[in-house]
Design goal:
The chain is mainly α and 174 residues long. The protein is built from 10 helices and no strands.
Length: 174
């Protein structure tokens, strides 16, 4: 795969220059730069893809912004990630993956657990059978000192496929 990155980069750059209002080419080029470890080049293309998508598809735009937030978290820039998550949720308050990831990262920092609880609760309303979202909600309840409330949430996560996840099993065990 790495051998094909330079060729892919050239083709995507050419396509993006021929079709500057195509969010797909901008998105793919941004992801390619992140794959290469170059976030300085990657983020502007992802932002461009989100901006192009925004007028016609807030779901796509908020999802791309959520990815930018996730990437910034992975790179250790928590403040920037939180800011981008806020931007994504301002665009689409029901962006379920953004709600979940933002809530989970807040819980991992032990900060703003009430806000994390509200966001995670919303993910459960939107996708009640998603084991990952159930795990996040259960974990936040546990961190809030509500272990008795967390237990049935973790049990539901197990029924919904969570028994195959080491993270969910670890959270449930605690």
């Amino acid at each position: 795969v790495d051998n094909n990155l330079p060729a892919a980069e050239e083709k995507l750059k050419k396509a993006a220059s021929y079709f500057p209002n195509n969010s797909d080419f901008a998105y793919r080029l941004g992801r390619l730069y992140y794959l290469k470890g170059d976030s300085v080049k990657g983020e502007p293309y992802l932002r461009k893809a989100a901006e192009i998508a925004k007028p016609t598809d807030i779901y796509l735009a908020s999802g791309i912004l959520g990815e930018i937030g996730d990437i910034n978290m992975a790179m250790g820039d928590t403040a920037k990630a939180m800011s981008v998550y806020e931007e994504a949720l301002a665009l689409n308050p029901n962006a379920v993956s953004v709600l979940n990831n933002y809530a989970y990262y807040l819980s991992m920092e032990g900060k703003k657990l009430k806000k994390a609880h509200q966001m995670s609760s919303r993910t459960i309303e939107l996708e009640p059978e998603n084991s990952t979202y159930l795990d996040t909600f259960g974990w936040i309840l546990f961190l809030q000192g509500k272990a008795a409330d967390a237990k049935p949430v973790f049990k539901r996560a197990m029924v919904c496929g969570g028994k195959d996840s080491a993270v969910i099993l670890d959270h449930y065990a605690e």
